[in-house]
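Limitations
The structure tokens in this dataset are predictions for the assembled complex, not deposited experimental models. Users should treat interface geometry with appropriate caution, especially where small molecules or nucleic acid strands are included. An illustrative entry is reproduced here so readers can see what is and is not provided.
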Amino acid sequence: MLEKYIRAARRETKADLVLKNAAYVDVFTGKVKRGDIAVVGEKIVGVGEYDGVKELDCSALTVVPGYIDGHVHIESSQLSPEEFASLIVPRGTTTIIADPHEITNVCGMAGCEYIAKASESVPLDVKIQLPSCVPATPFETSGAVLGGKDVEENIVKDYIFGLGEFMNYPGVLFCDNDVIRKLEAAHAAGKVIDGHAPAVYGNDLNAYLCGGITTDHECVTPEEIEEKISKGMYVHIRHGSSTQNLSNAKMMTAENMRRFILCTDDRHAADLKEKGHLDDALRRLVADGIDPVRAVTCATLNAAECYGLKFRGGIAPFWLADLVAVDNLKNFNAQYVIKDGKLVAEKGKPLFDTSKRYLPENVLNTVHVKTLAADDFVLKINSDRAKAMTIEPGGVVTGCEIVDVRHENGDVVVKGTDLLKLAVVERHKMTGNIGKALFKGYGLKGGALGITIAHDSHNIILLGDDNKAMADAANRLREIGGGMVLVDSAKGEIHSLTLDIGGLMSSRDAESLQRDSRALIERAHALGVKREYEAFMSLAFLSLAVIPKLKIVDKGLFDVGKFAFTDIEA
Amino acid sequence: MLEKYIRAARRETKADLVLKNAAYVDVFTGKVKRGDIAVVGEKIVGVGEYDGVKELDCSALTVVPGYIDGHVHIESSQLSPEEFASLIVPRGTTTIIADPHEITNVCGMAGCEYIAKASESVPLDVKIQLPSCVPATPFETSGAVLGGKDVEENIVKDYIFGLGEFMNYPGVLFCDNDVIRKLEAAHAAGKVIDGHAPAVYGNDLNAYLCGGITTDHECVTPEEIEEKISKGMYVHIRHGSSTQNLSNAKMMTAENMRRFILCTDDRHAADLKEKGHLDDALRRLVADGIDPVRAVTCATLNAAECYGLKFRGGIAPFWLADLVAVDNLKNFNAQYVIKDGKLVAEKGKPLFDTSKRYLPENVLNTVHVKTLAADDFVLKINSDRAKAMTIEPGGVVTGCEIVDVRHENGDVVVKGTDLLKLAVVERHKMTGNIGKALFKGYGLKGGALGITIAHDSHNIILLGDDNKAMADAANRLREIGGGMVLVDSAKGEIHSLTLDIGGLMSSRDAESLQRDSRALIERAHALGVKREYEAFMSLAFLSLAVIPKLKIVDKGLFDVGKFAFTDIEA
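Predicted assembly:
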């Protein structure tokens, strides 16, 4: 193959593809230059004057290297990897560092393998990070447990690129045996370890980094960024749907700029479709006054260096021909996207087929519960005062409020109050576990909502003011193999949306999924759910026992501050 | 081991070594900061406040990461790797990318292995680049030939770090089969390929880079540097004994600075001893107005990134504890050098023993010639006008002058003229080849000089005005197994200096070797060699058939411009 590149570089033969007369971003010198970019096979072979078998006129466009998303959970889009690619590749993203943490919590290594295999058919490099913290906490029942031994066995596999975000930082600091084993296995395999260490400073940060962890996407303050970069970390500029820290880019200087990279972490399909992916991050950064060439460098060369992706992230001979021709460095509207030397998207539309999706049995039918009855949702409280969970609109931090409760037939009365029942039904191992709590202020009246996305173990989370509606919701979720459900008690109707892949993602196309999803969300608001909440997705974080304050998991009510279970009685 | 690092980072246990209260260069942010640098085993575990089992007061010093020489031929020092380390480690160099091109031309892979094994006993990381062009040209007889198959077999070995400078750029451009095979083997093994492409531009440079070649240490002009960096190359700032391009550093900008690294390429023992190694380069760069932190970054983090050396080249937790405490960022006088966490040099003196040297049989006794007689140096020229070689003082480029010649008994007469006879005697394969030429203007009278260093095949190169003296010189070199020799015809004396390792390097200590070497050089000047020449070393480049203009190899006189042999007759 080298010979083919060399001959074309010398113009002895025509290139396969030439981007004619393109302005292009030279990330190595920080300049915008102009030339014909010649491509043979999957490689750029030269910039200069070239003729190609196929030529694209780029005289009115600016070519940049394909974007690299430094950290993303595909599952957060609720789309299959194929459909996810169909949204982000036309935006200019050609490589992602994907951590299939969610589906691995449900399906174990089968989830990880599914993401890898499903990605093979699309023109997107999906580098799979082995999820490091499955489950995220020992207080809940997850579909799988990846211990030190499992990490040792799997980290060496060819399709595993590195070890995913190491969220269990106390485990590192306290030298938990299994944690050390995981970290050492990754080093032995020569693989990169992503970090996740919000507000860890000083000696604790030193200790965390002694695990050989290299990145952080949780930075927000200037002090934290300065310290983390100073200690050798790469810091992500994050453009998720909820979690954003684009302002991190303001901390870039000439000296430290090579240590900043971009990521999206969690981004919903609607945002991907309507606003975009890293192209939207670039647009926003430039609008915020960041130098466009520098912003592009973060999204390309820097990320490639961070993750050791050689000959990627720049426009130069022998470098991977992952290229995006955009209208300009302000709007970043991608006109052409070239992946591995092939034109794969034009004017925002994918030129690849994603209709045939890889869909193995072992990621389907993941809702394992017995048929539930209204009585299963009876909530007995031995006091007239109880703890109720609350949640800030738009956030994931929950509160705890002490409320007065009434009882009837050994069950707490929620109808006619601003309280709702919340339940987490274990759905992986048929343990029969149901964690129950009270939830205040959400607004739902006359029914139940349910969803099989509940971070990070993804049990069934149910909310309602009617025991039978909650049971019906759970049973419907079992029937459809996971997804979202709404029960309207008054009308006697059950509406649902299937997320067949692990109960987290749909094998359908983004457009029809979103249409149905929006309809279901509207029904929830019609049943009273306040508009300041994301009707279903806000529920998905009520079980995340690593974020304050009061959470509910299948084993009961959890006080994050005390890092222990707690009674519902106040 | 991770556990030990983590506990010390959290101050649960004492660090092994602490550099107390040190100013230090933070290459990640480009700032000079202050703190205690804690070391456990071979790693830095933290910067902050720390106590150590051993502590070094650094309150008056500035700590920088250990320097990385991006490209060096140890052989050019004429010292063994152990002795070489004893000179450069106390200067602050802790890692070198070594290309044992010279000794491999003499001894084949045994030479390469020798450099690797001899380096094991010293506190210096010697990353061995497999020489890519052995021999450098097909026009001379070398001790070894490394073809495509040999490279395939050897590049995969654990001790081989990458493929050495690819000097044969025409071979790349013309897709020579063996060249392509070598390059592809390096890529298949996932190894880095160093470049060497002086004044290659445009499409030819594109083609050269399509070989997947990543560095160049031959850049000199701003245009060349701009183009090479723009095309993804790392550019070396070179501080050799003869070849210098420190001024390349003037081309550094905030945007391109990460693509500059330092190297020495070829540096003599005397310079290493008297002026220094990369410390001297840093001193000079700063004196030239380069920002000291930026200069340090080139010598450390940049080189580590270029060569994919993870967790090296910065002062941060989990990074390799290769540290240099210097007096200041102007003089760069190393007070302490720490390698892999251990204090290995103090106040310019090595704290390690290099008296026991690895000296395998297969790099000794490498001068294989029959006993020569005066008649072997008869030079018959069938014309009264002939081509004579000349050489610029201080350079390696030779000229060609047409001179009148007289004959006597079928031999050209040089006595009493400003001409000398030059001969290259093949010394590897006993071919009996002797290439002969005329050399003008060197000044020697009444004897002969000889040396077994003759780039790149390292045959015997002899210069003299007396056939018998030349034969005596060759015979002495055979006797001593290589080195340098001087024959004083008038006094009937023969003086020599042994370079027992491949005829290139001495197994002795630097000091006594230099003393004897200087004495021999003085004798050469006493015999008339003009002071503007390096009496012996200038001869070593007369056979380098890739540098213009007229060269002499064992197979005859070579016209580099025509890339063909030429007759001596004008």
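Some entries come with short summary sentences. For this one: The mean pLDDT of chain B is 96.
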